[in-house]
UniProtKB/TrEMBL annotation:
<keyword id="KW-0812">Transmembrane</keyword>
<dbReference type="GO" id="GO:0032585">
    <property type="term" value="C:multivesicular body membrane"/>
</dbReference>
<keyword id="KW-0325">Glycoprotein</keyword>
<feature type="compositionally biased region" description="Polar residues">
    <location>
        <begin position="783"/>
        <end position="793"/>
    </location>
</feature>
<dbReference type="GO" id="GO:0005524">
    <property type="term" value="F:ATP binding"/>
</dbReference>
<feature type="disulfide bond">
    <location>
        <begin position="342"/>
        <end position="360"/>
    </location>
</feature>
<keyword id="KW-0547">Nucleotide-binding</keyword>
<dbReference type="InterPro" id="IPR001245">
    <property type="entry name" value="Ser-Thr/Tyr_kinase_cat_dom"/>
</dbReference>
<keyword id="KW-0217">Developmental protein</keyword>
<keyword id="KW-0067">ATP-binding</keyword>
<dbReference type="InterPro" id="IPR000719">
    <property type="entry name" value="Prot_kinase_dom"/>
</dbReference>
<dbReference type="InterPro" id="IPR008271">
    <property type="entry name" value="Ser/Thr_kinase_AS"/>
</dbReference>
<keyword id="KW-1015">Disulfide bond</keyword>
<keyword id="KW-0723">Serine/threonine-protein kinase</keyword>
<feature type="domain" description="Protein kinase">
    <location>
        <begin position="475"/>
        <end position="752"/>
    </location>
</feature>
<dbReference type="GO" id="GO:0004674">
    <property type="term" value="F:protein serine/threonine kinase activity"/>
</dbReference>
<dbReference type="Pfam" id="PF13540">
    <property type="entry name" value="RCC1_2"/>
</dbReference>
Length: 873
């Protein structure tokens, strides 16, 4: 708990801090509207902490936690307490949980500490023997520091980190900070050095304390030897404030394109998000600076450099100047740890006094650094810089400028060569785009991102804001049909009578992100064309307004149907309709992966992005997060994770290893949702995650237990069993073991045919083929397919090449013949996966063997891959 906290996650990072005016009110800055808009403006907090998509503060008046934001796992907007008198000393948040350390107990119980936790897999009240001084939460675990023997203990899930197994039992700590998958602590004693344990992405092995202590600094990614005042943990990195100069030092994994920690800046307080860190500058402005990935480097809000406490400052701390950041409650102060020691060319001028930090001065007789020379020459010449100083500085400045120019040219050249290399096999022929055919497109062959203006002209119509305002009746609440994280969707009627859906970006503080998602969606939808992708009709970009105009989908989203509280609405989609929608959505995604050029990775496949038209046909929507993949779809992109919790591919989440198989994972979750009627994550069930709940049941052959109790089961369960098997293959941990989308589609088509042929479906639904707005009804019989073997539980794996099974023709796939699709699916990952399974199970393979075979299969492991393998095998 600190005066600042950072929330992270797929809805964007947010920095929150206590205001610098001593009011104890919270102020936040960032791009997650659910946090920004819900920040309480009347509650006073003692300190803050934050996790994935939420922020919590410890209320000043009741000493209870109060959280806001958008996590389903912790109650939001209410004060949390475990029993009537639970008052907390400190709180700390992990990814999806929060723990609170209760105030010390009295009497007989004074040697017991109570810790209450809320959240995903964590809700529990703990009694620990011994007095705990402070707690710190990591991704899925927590640690406590005992007040008396200064030892650390941890509890929770250590699968990905081994933080419990590696606890350094013999060491004593002043303070500890848990990060995503590791813990760092400052050791007791004069030197205040840091040791860390757990797992970091940059390390090929777990960081055990012994290697830090006894083998020395063998690995540059380990904590520096410098003494530290404080330390914080990010997902795979940690940062500390150095004792002698308050400079920040970071170690661990650095995401590509990260900004480095600021140089020559003194900091008071630091807090870490997942891949970035912020600190408060030790100046009167008290403005935060941030470094790392995906967050601005300077934030426009002044925050308090510490928490106001009623007790006087302890030894080793000094009282922060009250004029700059006054504490409103009388007698309370902000206590800042005093710096200690001075660098080699400095000596202590004033010691830490309780009201002032210790001061160091340069020893001008032994200057080595330019800082020292500058300082001493200023003192000597009354502020006029000496010749000696310039003769030393000038070559350094010239060298720095030359190096910067060289670096920029090298990066630019490498980028150009890389893009050309990636595009060498990819030619986007004119024929692959229905209806384009213009010579301008031909000119663009091989170009990844044609000019937006040309795309707009090609397909999407430009609307004025007034036109869309008129169409939606002034964006009235009555026209609102849905709301997403970054947009509201309105029903509208254009001048010519066309009914449309108008998606209006919520005006958020992060215009850049909004604008990026808007352009991604506009760009992609302008180049894609498939019966089961939502058609873009037009757009409007005026001032701060960003609007996209789509075909209106009269039946809303799949999510609205399968999770509806109304029985009638739920039953509108019976089993045949549900599976039909799954097939159609699979076809849309298959098109993105296999036939769009370059391939497109959707990154946000979920039930609210599968829309349903008047005739109950599915369309895949929402391309705001989509990315153009590499021409060779098997090579991964390194991208920071984005998407929706519960649907997010674990391989991508952990390793930033993005391929089309990430969409396959999300689609697998969608299939489980369709089968079970349960949300991807639903905390009303003990096993809240649909994958973790359903897959073991499916593997045990108990598919019936998984089926949505709100729908009458079909008389023949074979088709649904087949779908359940496909789903469990799609959600395999390793992308390579998941089937490709074309296999999934083929297997689902078979299952659908089987379902429609079963006696329970008296009147099979005949979905409409929708090709560019035209609707044709095809009433092909499905008996042929209904007689197929029901023992075939896995269509994707046991695909029979001899039978040329044609999917019912009403299932649209205008541009690809099924034989073409099948050709591409014969030798891929399912067969590999099967082999691997046989190898592992049949031969009693050890973990080491499994690791080796995986390494052989995917080539030498990068640090990220290595970590992934460690985490999962
Ligand atoms: N073309 C459309 N026709 C009818 N309803 C639509 C249309 N597009 C979106 N909606 C409705 O609006 C809702 C919000 O859509 P939007 O794409 O903005 O967000 P989302 O995908 O649900 O959530 P998020 O933005 O968090 O991913 C959808 O769930 C759907 O119910």
């Amino acid at each position: 708990m600190s005066s600042i906290a950072i929330s992270y996650g797929e809805n964007g990072p947010v920095f929150c801090g206590l205001k610098s005016d001593g009011s104890h009110l919270a102020t936040c800055y960032g791009s997650n509207p659910a946090i920004i808009h819900a920040t309480p403006d009347h509650l006073h907090f003692l300190g803050l902490t934050a996790g994935n998509g939420f922020v919590c503060g410890l209320l000043m008046d009741s000493n209870q936690p109060f959280c806001w934001g958008n996590t389903e796992f912790i109650p939001m907007g209410v004060s949390l307490q475990s029993s009537r008198n639970s008052e907390y000393l400190e709180i700390s948040a992990g990814d999806h949980h929060l723990c609170g350390l209760r105030k010390p107990l009295m009497g007989n119980m004074r040697n017991t500490s109570l810790v209450d936790c809320w959240g995903y897999n964590m809700t529990k009240n703990h009694d620990f023997d011994g007095q705990i001084q402070s707690i710190s939460a990591g991704s899925e675990f927590n640690c406590g520091l005992f007040a008396q023997n200064r030892s650390v203990f941890c509890w929770g899930d250590q699968t990905s980190s081994n933080v419990i197994g590696l606890i350094p039992k013999e060491l004593m700590f002043k303070t500890i900070a848990a990060g995503g998958f590791h813990v760092c602590g400052i050791l007791e004693g004069a030197h205040s050095s840091v040791v860390c344990w757990g797992t970091s992405l940059d390390l090929e092995e777990e960081i055990s304390v012994s290697s830090v202590m006894y083998a020395g600094q063998l690995n540059v990614d380990l904590a520096p030897l410098d003494p530290m005042l404080s330390v914080v943990g990010g997902k795979f990195h940690a940062c500390g404030i150095r004792s002698y100069d308050r400079a920040v030092v970071c170690w661990g994994y650095t995401v590509e394109r990260s900004t480095p920690p600021p140089l020559g800046v003194k900091l008071y307080e630091i807090a870490a998000g997942d891949y970035f860190t912020c600190g408060i500058i030790a100046e009167t402005s008290l403005l935060p600076v941030c470094w790392g990935a995906s967050f601005p480097s300077a934030l426009p809000l002044a925050v308090s450099p510490g928490v106001c406490k009623a007790a006087p400052c302890a030894r080793g701390f000094y009282e922060f100047n009250n004029a700059t950041a006054p504490c409103k409650s009388p007698g309370s102060h902000i206590c800042v740890p005093c710096s200690s020691g001075c660098s080699s060319e400095m000596y202590e001028v004033i010691e830490c006094s309780g009201t002032m930090d210790r001061q160091c001065g340069y020893n001008c007789s032994s200057c080595g650094s330019s800082e020292c020379i500058k300082n001493c020459s200023q003192v000597a010449s009354g502020g006029i810089k000496s010749e000696k100083f310039w003769s030393l500085q000038l070559p350094i400045i010239v060298a720095e400028v030359c190096f910067a120019v060289f670096l920029v040219s090298a990066v630019a050249l490498t980028s150009v060569l890389y893009v050309r290399y990636k595009l060498r096999n990819c030619s986007c022929s004119v024929d692959s785009r229905k209806g384009s055919g213009s010579s301008s497109f031909r000119k663009e062959s091989g170009k990844i991102r044609p000019d937006l203006d040309e795309l707009k002209i090609r397909r999407a119509q430009k609307f004025t804001y007034e036109e869309l305002e008129r169409a939606t009746d002034g964006f009235k609440d009555e026209s609102l049909v849905g709301r997403g994280s970054f947009s509201c969707v309105f029903k509208g009627v254009l001048k010519d009578g066309t009914i449309v859906a108008v998606k209006r970006a919520i005006v958020s503080s992060d215009m850049k992100k909004n604008s990026k998602e808007f352009h991604t969606e506009l760009d992609l939808l302008s180049r894609l064309n498939h019966a089961h992708l939502l058609n873009l009709l037009g757009y409007c970009e005026e001032g701060g307004e960003r609007l996209l105009v789509y075909e209106f989908m009269a039946n809303g989203s799949l999510h609205q149907h399968i999770h509806s509280k109304s029985k009638e609405m739920k039953e509108q989609l019976d089993w045949v309709r549900r599976v039909t929608i799954a097939v159609q959505a699979a076809r849309g995604i298959e098109y993105l992966h296999g036939y769009a050029c370059p391939p497109v990775i959707h990154r946000d496949i979920k039930s609210s992005n599968i829309l349903i038209d008047e005739e109950h046909n599915a369309r895949v929507a929402d391309f705001g997060l989509s990315l153009l993949g590499p021409a060779n779809s098997s090579s991964p992109l390194a991208e920071l994770p984005a998407g929706t919790l519960g649907y997010l591919d674990p391989e991508y989440y952990r390793l930033h290893y993005l391929t089309t198989k990430s969409d396959v994972y999300s689609f697998g979750v969608l299939l489980l949702e369709i089968l079970s009627g349960r949300k991807a994550i639903d905390m009303q069930y003990e096993e809240g995650n649909v994958v973790e709940w359903a897959v073991p049941l499916i593997k045990a052959g108990d598919v019936e237990a998984v089926l949505d109790p709100g729908l009458k089961p079909p008389s023949d369960l074979e088709a649904l069993k087949r779908i359940a098997n496909i789903a469990s293959k799609c959600v395999r941990m390793r992308g390579k073991e998941r089937p490709s989308m074309d296999k999934v589609t083929t297997a689902l088509e078979r299952a659908l045919a089987q379902l429609m042929g079963s006696p329970c479906s008296e009147q099979p639904i005949l979905p409409t083929e929708v090709v560019l707005g035209s609707s044709r009804m095809h009433k092909k019989s499905s008996q042929r397919s209904g007689n197929r073997s029901t023992s075939e539980t896995d269509g994707a794996d046991t695909e029979d090449q001899r039978i040329e099974f044609r999917a019912p023709s009403w299932i649209t796939f205008p541009s690809v013949a099924s034989s073409q699709r099948r050709k591409s699916s014969v030798s891929e990952s399912d067969l590999d996966a099967k082999n691997i399974e046989t190898r592992n199970v049949g031969n009693g393979t050890t973990v080491g063997d499994a690791l080796r075979s995986l390494v052989e299969e995917i080539g030498p492991a990068s640090p990220q891959e290595h970590l992934y393998l460690q985490h999962n095998f």
